[in-house]
Design a protein that fits this description.
The complex is a heterodimer of chains A (177) and B (421). Chain A is α/β, with parallel strands linked by helices and 177 residues long. Chain A has helices spanning 7-19, 43-52, 117-127, 163-169, and strands at 26-30, 33-38, 60-68, 79-86, 93-100, 105-107, 130-132. Chain A has four helices and seven strands. Classes of the chains: A alpha/beta (177), B alpha+beta (421).
């Protein structure tokens, strides 16, 4: 993707350093895009700043997903939730990452962007990462009866077989048979 | 949407929000609720839904009090498959996302991989890709706009334009052998060279289509019934649209001129001249007009390129990334080894993460690729434009009439394959 004015990234880094001097974000550049690694507790504050501050004005949540680094980063938390923000005025992008372990809650962004609703549910559906403050943290695409989280690396590609589904749907109460 | 959900669920008879109640709802086509409302199912298999998606609605007379989309009926877990497939194999999955214009998805994916590796594709391939990309956009917009007409009772437009969409489908068939799932392109260029007479076929299309599109427009945009049914219906303002992650024609109909082709030019979009049409109030009528004008702009792009398809290789001649010619594979040792390496070990993509966006018919399709250097991606995520804007559907239709919901759904151009991934 084409790199827009390069000094924008420098300004953005300075802006963040000025606003969050003690937050300890890991800020780096990856192919011309600033990547910020934030902590779960500071996520909401950071996102609000990126959206509302005149120097940032990243007003669109362009993409939201997660990555499971189960077999890559054994010492760290296994999941990484990735947000991609976009500014419809300056056309710049920024990527924010938040690490989360199994069972950890990540703060929901629905209060900031309405569009975060379904993608967060999708991430919950596929990875089992819960978003705290989300209005309806339930499965979106997979059936409710589904067990497991299919995009986790330890979920088999070929699935778990269909026996468990037949048990739970067709024979609701096995004891009666 | 979130506030409305919580408000309504406090009421007497909350609409079930979970999948398990979906089956319960399906027992009856319609049922009367205690609070005097009627609950109906629009879908999952219904002429007005264009694909397998369901809307459960509570109606007060003919007014929609609450709407809730239920999705997931055609989910095939492409993101999981993508972790197992090589970069060229995943192309088959992208075919099946927006199946109305599958070459666009193919090009978007191949473009993402090539950008990630850093391949310079021969200009012959780039020109052909740009032409096919724009023709696919036309073919997608034809479906969306004519079917909007059909849903509002104007069947003639579909019959007018579909015949000419067939011309493009025939070009694709001659080119790739397939009409729907084209699997167009490979990493590094085209899979095979364009056929003789490709330019003539495209020119034939360009010659007849503008006139018929004008006729089609004339049937609808000054039609009193059509205007009454669409103008101001399902309107959304720019700020809300951006908050929902709208992109593509639906965003441009609200007045925001964001287009990936202009903002981050890929293929040859920085070398051709075209305009971005924008609407005013983001209503069904504006979306219709924006799509119609985009068809003219696409034809403008194609006509600038079709006379100047450069000669030369159609595929990059670096055999780390593309298969060597078959003749050489049979006769030369080195080419045989390259062929074996690509088929068995796939294309080596450098480790790292990368996000690449392309403007497909519905908006920004983004691929987030995490590579660990192997032949398959470690993780591939697809940003499907439908998925982001369809969540605003309740906000668009609540408070309006049931018949308007059909128009809104048509004009949003929700493609079930793209929505569910």
């Amino acid at each position: 993707m084409r790199e827009l004015s390069p000094d924008h990234n420098i300004k953005l880094k300075e802006n963040l350093a000025g606003r969050f001097p003690n937050a300890g974000f890991k800020v780096e550049e990856n192919r011309g895009i600033v990547v910020i690694e934030a902590s779960r507790s500071s996520l909401i504050e950071l996102m609000k700043h990126l959206k509302e501050d005149a120097g940032c004005s990243f007003n669109v949540l362009m993409d939201l997903t997660a990555v499971d680094y189960l077999d890559k980063r054994k010492s760290e938390e296994r999941f990484e939730v990735v947000y991609m923000l976009f500014s419809s005025t300056s056309l710049h992008r920024v990527r924010i990452k938040v690490k989360a372990g199994d069972g950890d809650d990540v703060p929901s962004l629905v209060s900031i962007w309405k569009g975060a609703n379904w993608p967060e549910r999708e991430v919950f559906d596929f990875f089992g990462i819960k978003f705290s403050g989300h209005p309806l943290m339930e499965r979106l695409i997979m059936p409710d009866e589904f067990r497991g989280y299919p995009l986790r690396k330890d979920f088999p590609l070929e699935g778990q077989g269909e026996d468990y589904l037949i048990e739970s749907i067709l024979i609701p109460d096995k004891t009666k048979i | 949407m979130t506030n409305k959900n919580s408000d309504n669920s406090a009421g007497k008879n909350p609409l079930p929000d979970t999948y398990s109640t979906r089956q319960e709802v399906l027992k009856n086509e319609a049922e009367h609720l205690e609070n005097g409302l009627m609950r109906i199912n629009l879908g999952p298999s219904h002429p007005a839904t264009h694909g397998i998606l369901q809307n459960v609605m509570d109606l007060d007379g003919e007014t929609i009090v609450k709407a809730r989309p239920v999705i997931g009926y055609v989910h095939r877990s492409f993101e999981k498959l993508g972790e197992k497939y090589t970069y060229n194999q995943f192309l088959n999955c992208t075919d099946r996302m927006n199946y109305v214009s599958s070459p666009m998805n193919n090009i978007a994916w191949i473009n993402a991989v090539e950008e990630m590796i850093g391949i310079n594709v021969p200009s012959r391939a780039q020109v052909v890709r740009t032409i096919i990309n724009e023709l696919s956009r036309i073919s997608d917009h034809i479906i969306c706009n004519t079917v909007l007409g059909v849903d509002l009772g104007a069947f003639t437009g579909l019959l007018y334009l579909y015949h000419y969409r067939e011309m493009f489908t025939n070009i694709l068939e001659k080119m790739t052998g397939a009409r729907l799932t084209t699997t167009f392109n490979r990493v590094g260029g085209l899979e095979m060279d364009i056929y003789d007479g490709f330019a003539a076929d495209v020119k034939d299309f360009l010659k007849v289509f503008p006139k018929i599109l004008k006729d089609f427009e004339g049937l609808l945009i000054h039609n009193r019934i059509f205007i009454d049914r669409t103008k101001g219906v399902g309107a959304i303002d720019k700020e809300t649209a951006l908050s929902y992650g709208y992109t593509g024609p639906n965003l441009r109909a609200t007045g925001c001129d964001y287009d990936v082709r202009k903002a981050y030019p890929y293929l040859l979009y920085d070398q051709v001249d075209f305009d971005i049409p924008v609407g005013i109030d983001g209503s069904v009528y504006d979306r219709f007009l924006v799509r119609n004008e985009e068809m003219y702009q696409s034809m403008k792009i194609v006509s600038q390129l079709i006379d100047n398809i450069p000669a030369g290789p159609y595929r990059v001649e670096d055999y780390h990334y593309s298969l060597p010619p078959k003749k050489d594979v049979y006769e030369k040792m080195e080419e045989l080894i390259y062929h074996f390496k690509i088929v068995m070990h796939g294309i080596q993509v450098p480790p790292g993460e990368f996000y690449s966006a392309a403007e497909i018919a519905n908006g920004e399709m983004g691929f987030y690729i995490v590579s660990d250097g192997g032949k398959t991606p470690y993780r591939v995520h697809v940003r499907r434009p439908c998925f982001w804007y369809y969540q605003s559907f309740p906000e668009l239709v609540e408070g309006s009439m049931l018949a308007d919901a059909v128009a809104v759904m048509s004009s949003l151009n929700v493609i079930a394959g793209e929505l569910d991934g």
